[in-house]
Amino acid sequence: MDPEAPGWNAQASAVNADPLSGGYVEAVRWLRRGISTDAFALADQGAADQYRTLVHLVDTAAQAGYAEKVRHAVSRDLNRYAVFVCLSLESLANTGSVLDPGFPSCPGIQRDDDDSELWQPQPVPLGFIGMLQADPFDPMYRPAA
User: Fold this and answer.
1) 3-state class of 84 per DSSP?
2) 18, 51, 113, 142: which one has the fewest Cβ atoms less than 10 Å from its Cβ?
């Protein structure tokens, strides 16, 4: 349900929602607010499109009811796309252009139960794998021993 809609209850939605969305209600709200300001502030259309796509994917995934295995893969794909968008925005700040994600340009969040392939940009930008490995919220994170 849309948090902007009359009668929307954040607590009830968080309690009754799929676990993918339950822990991320505030993050989804933050992203939605950001889309109305942050994306419009970006002078580069490619950067704005990547940010809008991220918001759309997170919003759509937060409202979906995924099986456990699919939920895990979708969460990882969303994290990977968010890392790509961060790197792309860094590239815009440093070089004046955003990164090209290649094909597919973003992860697909409609998956089969046996689809375990994770999205990544093609070609993989410098720093992408490092950011994934350094993210303690990524299930693949392994701290140095």
Assistant:
1) helix
2) 142
